[in-house]
Write a structure and sequence with these properties.
Blueprint (H helix, E strand, L loop, with lengths): L11 E5 L2 E6 L10 H4 L6 E6 L17 H14 L6 E5 L1 H12 L6 E5 L8 H17 L2 H11 L2 H6 L1 H13 L2 H12 L5 H4 L6 E6 L7 H10 L4 E5 L6 H4 L1 H14 L7
Parallel strand pairs: 2-3, 2-4, 4-5, 5-6, 6-7
Antiparallel strand pairs: 1-3
This protein binds D-malate (MLT).
The site of D-malate (MLT) has 7 residues, from loops.
């Protein structure tokens, strides 16, 4: 089976019209996490939020491991279907791993990069082993174990205490994911390549965003990304944890809009 035939036909949500911006969701969520971006696209922009394979409305695949390159290939196949030459790619956390993989494989298909609450380095051997243990538990016990492990770390203190609606929305999204997709994706993230050497090769505009209370990514990782990508800059979102597009949507949308407004004009995206 060649790589192309292994692409999954992704489902997606979209809003707005004009230049394309692709929004890649975090693990183990889906495109619904971008609801507050899709509710008000910046004028002149078309936002496209795919469900990565096995999440939201997108089907599972036969692959035992959902590697970041398989996921990147699915997104490029969706871009081909939508006839998008080189959109701006915005990825949060796992979505950022996929965005970096897209840059590795198809730099000519990326107009600019927004990397939110993500990192470029691979898993340490210990982190990879912990993912494998979690994958095996999910296969045996179901997805509640992932919710228990991840939910307390995903959101800022402010969100957890003052915005219960977001807490339940995130939990509900996690519950929608199947144990098989979760286990395969955990193994894919554990196997991801080191993208640190890639950062210096990024020759398109870059924006790095991080929640000030993100305990999963940490500010050091985001500073490293912003320092290593030529010309990139870092925006820190106060009172947000790992999911600023949900937790502080107005502020996240503002920094993204500013970045988009500074991009050089190109005739065809
Ligand atoms: C995510 O939010 O996508 C995950 O925290 C990524 C990871 O587990 O490395």
């Amino acid at each position: 089976m060649n790589a192309a035939s292994r692409n999954v036909n992704l489902e997606w949500r979209e809003a707005g019209s004009g230049k394309p911006l692709i929004l890649l969701h975090a693990f183990p969520l889906n495109s619904a996490m971008w609801g507050k971006q899709l509710a008000g696209p910046p004028p002149g922009w078309r936002l496209i939020a795919p469900d990565l394979r096995g999440f939201g409305g997108s089907p599972d695949a036969d692959d035992a491991v959902y590697t970041m390159d398989l996921m990147a290939g699915d997104v490029v196949a969706l871009m081909d279907r939508l006839q998008l030459r080189s959109p701006v790619i915005c990825g949060i956390s796992m979505g950022g791993y996929v965005a970096l993989e897209m840059w590795r494989q198809h730099p000519d298909r990326v107009r600019a990069l927004i990397l939110a609450d993500t990192r470029a380095g691979p898993d340490s051997p210990e982190a990879a082993r912990a993912r494998e243990r979690l994958a095996q538990r999910v296969e045996k016990e179901g997805i509640d174990v992932v919710i228990e492990t991840m939910l307390p770390k995903l959101l800022s203190t402010t969100t957890r205490y003052h915005n219960k609606g977001i807490v339940s929305a995130v939990a509900a999204m996690m519950k929608e994911a199947g144990p098989g997709a979760i286990a395969r994706t955990l193994r894919g993230m554990a196997a991801r390549r080191d993208s640190e050497p890639l950062l210096r090769t990024i020759s398109v505009p870059g924006l790095v965003v991080v929640g000030a209370e993100d305990v999963i990514t940490g500010r050091g990782q985001s500073e490293f990304l912003a320092r290593s990508i030529p010309g990139a800059w870092l925006e820190t979102i106060d009172d947000a944890g790992h999911l600023p597009p949900m937790e502080r949507a107005d502020e996240f949308n503002r920094v993204v809009k500013t970045f988009l407004s500074r991009l050089p004009q190109v005739a065809h995206a």
